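just leaving the lab so this will be short. what follows is a protein written twice so to speak, once as letters and once as structure tokens for the fold. can you read through it and tell me how you think this chain folds. thanks a lot i owe you, the record is right below.

___
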Amino acid sequence: IEVVEDKEEDLVTRAPIVTVMGHVDHGKTSLLDYIRKENVIAGESGGITQHIGAYGVTLDNGQKIAFLDTPGHEAFTAMRARGAQVTDIAIIVVAADDDIMPQTKEAISHAQAAGVPIIFAINKIDKPNANVDKIKERLAGMNLLVEDWGGKIQSHDISAKVGTGVKELLEKVLLEAEILDLKANPNKAAQGTVVEAFLDKGKGYVSTILVQQGTLKIGDYMLAGKHHGKVKAMHDERGHTVLSAGPSTPVSVLGLDGAPTAGDKFNVFEDEKEAKQIASKRSQLMREQSVRTQRHITLDEIGRRIALGQFKELNVILKGDVDGSVEALSDSFSKLSTEEVQINIIHKGVGAITETDVNLASASDAIIIGFNVRPAGNARQLADKEEIDIRYYSIIYAAIDDLKDAMEGMLAPEMKEEILGNAEIREIFKISKVGSIAGCMVTDGKILRTSKIRVIRDGVVVHTGELVALKRFKDDVKEVTKGYDCGIQIKGFNDIEINDVIEAYHEVAIKKKLK
């Protein structure tokens, strides 16, 4: 795809693209809500942004800003890393009643790595225990001096809930954008980036894209990653129909033949044939690449691990509602693999769980994980029949934690023995045809008829085995407790002596933890 340099006179000032980053629960989504004067938090499960949203906002003075709301969880590092390359300015939200969290640091380093100017929004200043100076001090300690402290980095104290300072924050964003002098040529074929893609039951594949150059019109032929198609409809984030989208405009597009990956670049072609050729070439390359990157364990390694009896594999089929979540989950899952348990993601995709997925799972002994999706058609009946485990999640952490637990369950439990009690042999009765019977006194704990026993002589174990009989006087009993005497016959061992100690124990399985 050839890149044509734009002439200076064709360039027009474009709106800045701003990514809002920061720790979970520090108020990124509330800030965007306030800016959009509309509530999205209600739709977030557990208050965690599960989908990357892109919003276009027009301020009162007519200036436009495009916002990307990236989820705060580390599982989205991959997407955030991609998101940071689309961005002109990063707003990093820090709660004044909290501290600089690891995720905040992560967001800062992403922004720095992408060379994007940072503006700090110190949020929740309306809370009684808010301490803005502590946050600024922490930032100074990380070598990030804000303007009030004589540094270069802009920051503003805001309350996203009440709206204090949000206007000034946006002014600082526009000021920063002015310095960057952002320009683009609207009069050419559109180019840009895919932010998100998902399968809508009624409409087909919907891709949220951000136009960065040129103007995208309905009817354009578009290629994104390995997918292509004619733009049939465009909508803004409120669902209103849009006829054309210029630079820095986020829109959702219908018409691609699949769900492109978040972070894919898209281009518009005059010639449908050319786009199709590139798409098929790309799918071929991706197929080759996926064959190469599947980490199949070598035979020697499998042999070695099977010989040690420690090799376990967990096959996973992953289906999600949007590509970003699928990518994030598959990244997180593959990081969970340890030497003892290998996680193989044998298939991942966007859309409902189909019968094909269930058949694949039954052929490869896999579990199916559905993120915000459910089985379609007969898939559920088939899964019940084949006894395939399907798990549904709507919060990424929950899926990761459950998979971790499943892996710990796959590790063979450790057997730990627990000593139940001791009995001391006080007398020995030899009975013909039966053998020796020990007359014992239980000195501590209790002796169970079913417990395993050891015979200990002078502190040394001389026999390990089990009981044939446990009696009090002439009656068989299930257990004898401390302070009582009893008769014990040991299976296959008659060589007992007075003062030997009989120790009763049993084995308990303890769940093994992953290293």
